[in-house]
Specification:
alpha/beta; TIM Barrel; 8-stranded parallel sheet; binds zinc ion
Length: 278
């Protein structure tokens, strides 16, 4: 299995806390927890999100993750594309990191940063994504920050840039939750758009079996089932847990119950393997 969306360090976005106390723990505590989690869920590869606004010599916010890859086999880094930093100097540093081939994708934080995908600040990152054949992931949907501006996180906005940059592969993180149908339409309409299924619900293992949450969980599964069917592109959906916000195994079971078994190999392994060249 491949988990296309996890965190191993705080994202350091405006108004966002550390996400989970674990992410503030010393590096070996985090990597031990991640290895245990991967083993328990039979996950071989994970893609971890970098942080925003890192020091100059770490233009994609992934230095910490790259250091941890020595401690966890199968850990890959996703660099943060910052639309507020599109000056040539910064972009040169970004390109130097991409040239090392240590990054599997770029990520833009729509909503957390009040810039739409068609903002000129993102354009150079699309050019780099195309040149280095890296997917461009966007946070879409609900945010964990009161400072975020939701309209920028609407998945429909990604349609504009998917059309204008047909050679770039875009990923809608969280399937635009709660705008699942909008996200599914963007996937349906554009051959160069994928969606990850992370973060539709969060909570510890117990919260996935708690009686009082079953109705909510089933409603969410139904919404996912409907969006997945609507998109008519089973090869465009990726399992992601948003760990440590949800346990990988419990979240896998939750997704598996929503998606027809026929497509499990695609969702849990093959689609991510092809998209991220794993
Ligand atoms: Zn996340």
């Amino acid at each position: 299995m491949i988990d296309a969306h996890i965190h191993i360090m705080p994202p350091r976005l405006p108004g966002v806390g550390c996400l989970s106390p674990l992410l503030e723990a010393p590096p070996t505590v985090r990597t031990d927890a991640l290895r245990r989690e991967m083993q328990a869920a039979d996950v071989r590869h994970v893609l971890a999100m970098g942080c925003w606004n890192a020091p100059e010599d770490d233009p994609l916010g992934i230095a910490e993750i790259l250091a941890l890859t020595r401690l966890v086999s199968g850990l890959f880094a996703i660099g943060v594309a910052d639309p507020t930093r599109s000056d040539p100097e910064h972009l040169r540093r970004v390109e130097a990191v991409l040239a090392t081939k240590q990054v599997r994708a770029l990520k833009g934080y729509l909503g957390y940063l009040p810039y739409a995908p068609d903002h000129p600040g993102y354009r150079p990152y699309y050019e780099l994504a195309e040149r280095y054949q890296l997917p461009m992931i966007f946070h879409t949907g609900d945010t964990y920050s009161p400072c975020a501006k939701l309209r920028y996180a609407q998945p429909l906005l990604v349609d504009d840039v998917a059309v204008d940059h047909p050679k770039v592969k875009f990923v809608l993180a969280h399937l635009g939750n709660p705008w699942l149908t909008d996200a599914a339409e963007v996937v349906y309409k554009n051959v160069n758009v994928w969606a990850d299924l992370s973060g539709l619900v969060v909570g510890d293992a117990g919260s996935f079996t708690a009686a009082e949450r079953q109705e909510m969980l089933e409603e969410t599964r139904q919404a996912l089932r409907r969006a997945f069917r609507y998109a008519e592109r089973p090869n465009r959906f990726l399992y992601g847990s948003d760990w440590p916000l949800a346990p990988m195994a419990a979240y896998r079971a939750f997704i598996a119950a929503a998606i027809p078994e026929l497509y499990h190999a695609l969702i849990f392994v093959d689609n991510a393997r092809a998209l991220f060249r794993i």
